[in-house]
Structures are given as structure tokens and as C-alpha cells.
Write a structure and sequence with these properties.
The protein has a domain of 105 residues: ATPase, nucleotide binding domain (Nucleotidyltransferase, domain 5, 2-Layer Sandwich), CATH 3.30.420. The chain is built from 13 helices and ten strands. The longest helix has 19 residues.
């Protein structure tokens, strides 16, 4: 019996599986050791996971998480050990989880497009190259957070989007001052910015908004996938941005001359399969 977690900045998917069969699925808020304190993570595990996790004899946990870099993995592993008394606890990056889920044991390029963004060149066993994502301020092209940043900039600066701006502010019951407050003075600005994707998705028939989405994906491909210099390999995608805007993503990939492979919202199903082999 194994427990698998795929954790992004916004949500964490949990699955209890046995021999490739999913027995239970649950969700908690996102867990990211870069953006959250140990106490905050401990509270999520106790209040949101343990309260719903079945009392089954779990032997191992495979935790794949955003922000789980080599620097943060030991502390994350200790946090999990403090809450879950299991025989084996392994912590890997969400990128490793995406590669294992999307590519299995085949070569390919695996990409995460959710609240944040990342990518890697995978040889079927290991990540052999990774373009630094750099986070939503310095990088993360293609992500929901960056799309939100571009959207905010556009609605306040482009007169052609004045009607969109007014409609968005009315729907969200916010002012420009409220947005500045959320982005610069409150925690988890990346989640707030990414949440604007819900509005954009409902108004994708607006040519300028659609162009924002396509351009965001094209910037991701140019800046993060081109450096791998393997245009012959399929490019696979996981995450809410990829699954919510598949046609825009395919359009961007076609323009940048890449072949799109698999597009899924969550890597969990693929990880259950991977750990059953």
C-alpha cells in the first residue's frame, strides 16, 4: 500500500494505491517549502490530510512537490516524517513527478504549466537537463501566475481592454488598489495572479485575451524548451494551464515548430502506473 502526492503551489493531489489500483483520492491546499513555513505545512498535513486519509496500513509515501529542490528536500522529508510514521518516505521535485508520469521510461521533454512552470529533458530514467524556471517574478513563462501578471498589466495599460478591465473589477468586486495590495503586501501573490485564469478562460473569444495566452505559451517554449536542442522529441504537458488551454497551447507549439505529445491536468494517474511497475 503506497501513498502518492503531487503538490503544486495551489493544491496537492493525494492517492492511496495498491498494485496500481487507486483506492482513495484526496486533496489539500498546495504545499511548497519555498513559499510556506514549516508550521504552515505541518498544519496542512494534520488538518487537511490526516482528517480524511483512510486508516489503512500504508508502507510508503512518494511525495512530488513544487519547491522540493535538493536544498529543501531534507526539511520536507522531516516534516512529512513528523506527521506520517511510514517505513519509507521519498521526496522528489514536481518536475521529476511530471517526467515519470508523462514519459514513463521513455525519452521526452516534460513540462509543468500550472500556477508555476517548469520543464526538463528526460532520458527515460533521469532528468538530464533543466532550464531554470526562476519563479514568477524572474521567469515562469507559460504559467498561470505569469498569465495573471500579463493580464493585469494589459487591462490597466491597454485602452482596447478598458471594457474587460471594468467587467473584471466588477465581477471580482475589487479596485486597482485592492490588486496592488494582494500582489505586493499579502502572501501567495502567485496564487492570486494565477486565479485570473478563471476569468480569462471564460472570455477566450476576445482576440487580445487569447493572444495573451498564446504568447505566454510561446515565450515558455522559446525560453525553456528550445535550449534542450531536441526538436524531434515529443513535448508533454501537465497542469491546469496546459489542460485548460489545449488549443492555444497546440497553436503556440505549431508556431514554434514543436510536436505536442500528452496533455493532462494531473500527473497522479501516470505516477500510480509508474510506481506499480
Amino acid at each position: 500500500m503506497i501513498l502518492i502526492a503531487d503538490s503544486g503551489s495551489t493544491k496537492t493531489d493525494w492517492v492511496l494505491a495498491n498494485d496500481g489500483e487507486t483506492l482513495w483520492q484526496g486533496k489539500t491546499q498546495g504545499i511548497n517549502p519555498v513559499h510556506q513555513s514549516p508550521d504552515g505545512i505541518h498544519r496542512i498535513l494534520e488538518e487537511e490530510l490526516l482528517s480524511t486519509l483512510p486508516s489503512s496500513p500504508v508502507e510508503s509515501l512518494y511525495f512530488y512537490g513544487s519547491g522540493c529542490t535538493p536544498v529543501h528536500i531534507p526539511a520536507m522529508k522531516q516534516l512529512l516524517s513528523n506527521v506520517l510514521s511510514l517505513h519509507t518516505i521519498e521526496v522528489e521535485s514536481d518536475l521529476t513527478g511530471a517526467a515519470r508520469s508523462l514519459c514513463g521510461r521513455e525519452s521526452g521533454i516534460a513540462c509543468i504549466l500550472g500556477t508555476g512552470a517548469n520543464s526538463c529533458l528526460y532520458d527515460g530514467q533521469h532528468i538530464v537537463q533543466n532550464t531554470p524556471a526562476l519563479g514568477y517574478i524572474l521567469g515562469d513563462e507559460g504559467s498561470g501566475a505569469v498569465l495573471g501578471r500579463k493580464f493585469m498589466n494589459a487591462i490597466f495599460k491597454n485602452p482596447q481592454l478598458a471594457a474587460v478591465r471594468d467587467d473584471f473589477l466588477k465581477e471580482q468586486q475589487m479596485t486597482m488598489a485592492d490588486i496592488i495590495q494582494r500582489v505586493y503586501r499579502e502572501p501567495l501573490a502567485n496564487r492570486f495572479l494565477a486565479s485570473t485564469s478563471l476569468y480569462i478562460g471564460k472570455h477566450l473569444d476576445h482576440p487580445l485575451l487569447r493572444q495573451l495566452v498564446v504568447d505566454n505559451f510561446r515565450e515558455f517554449l522559446r525560453g525553456n524548451v528550445v535550449p534542450y536542442q531536441h526538436p524531434e522529441l515529443p513535448v508533454h504537458f501537465v497542469g491546469s494551464m496546459a489542460s485548460n488551454y489545449p488549443e492555444a497551447l497546440k497553436e503556440a507549439a505549431k508556431k514554434e515548430k514543436f510536436h505536442v505529445g500528452t496533455i493532462v491536468q494531473s500527473p497522479i494517474e501516470g505516477l500510480v502506473k509508474y510506481h506499480s511497475l
